Amino acid sequence: MTIVDGLETVTSPDGTSIGYRTYGSGPGVVLVPGALHSGHHYQELACCLADEFTIYAMDRRGRPGSGRQLPHHSIDDECADVMAVMEKTGASRLFGHSSGGVVALQTALRVQVTKVAVYEPAVMGPASVPPVKDLAAMERALAEGRQTDAFAMLAKGESGPVPKMPLFALKMLFRLASKGTNARFREYVDAVAAFPAEQRMIMGLGAEADRYRELATETLVLLGARTGGELARGARFLAATAPGARLQVLAGLNHDAPDEKAPGRVAAELRPYFSRSSL
């Protein structure tokens, strides 16, 4: 384990360096970010919980604080990364957002954890439709160095007002935005290179969706009432399938609640859940 500019690192079994940031004190919770996100994007959420818990906000492989080479994303490797952080820190609770929620859930299927909480996990049931229908086109754009165009393809597949724009117009808009000063936008564009491999990993798990029937770990599934589409269907599928899961719908929230829109609201749900004893 090393510490660089406040970022601690551990080495996963395949040799990949995995970074994490530590907030607070108390029982440990490993926070697993969603696609395009790093641990520092959840700083406000972590700080809202830091008076009662120690939050270990990790950078998944391919993120700035971890191994940046484009890795082969297998669910076994991603779960091993989480377990490496758990082993080093002693944390036994997991919180995951979006695709990070899937990694948290899959980790709980492989190793004993005290509790799991997920916010709109990108769980794909048997009839799910991927957010980017043509991953090959996205990969071609990345291979040609057109990362902003690749990010536009991803945004086109998400819910909300942006996908209503034609793709060519969205690409032009994002190219203009990439020349601006919005640091978060630039981080997303930089991180999109890892998305296709992560998405293929998530899609591959769709055929094994019934395995969540084996997830006896107590699981809190959080869903924003303003989120629809595959994310909402995935959250409801998980809550109906996993024996230890219950669904909590949060009025007025959407997919960006944990990191941008309402981290305090999400923390208010996580605090009592992680505090009380398991049933």
UniProtKB/TrEMBL annotation:
<dbReference type="InterPro" id="IPR029058">
    <property type="entry name" value="AB_hydrolase_fold"/>
</dbReference>
<protein>
    <submittedName>
        <fullName>Alpha/beta hydrolase</fullName>
    </submittedName>
</protein>
<dbReference type="Pfam" id="PF12697">
    <property type="entry name" value="Abhydrolase_6"/>
</dbReference>
<keyword id="KW-0378">Hydrolase</keyword>
<dbReference type="InterPro" id="IPR000073">
    <property type="entry name" value="AB_hydrolase_1"/>
</dbReference>
<dbReference type="InterPro" id="IPR050471">
    <property type="entry name" value="AB_hydrolase"/>
</dbReference>
<dbReference type="GO" id="GO:0016787">
    <property type="term" value="F:hydrolase activity"/>
</dbReference>
<feature type="domain" description="AB hydrolase-1">
    <location>
        <begin position="29"/>
        <end position="268"/>
    </location>
</feature>
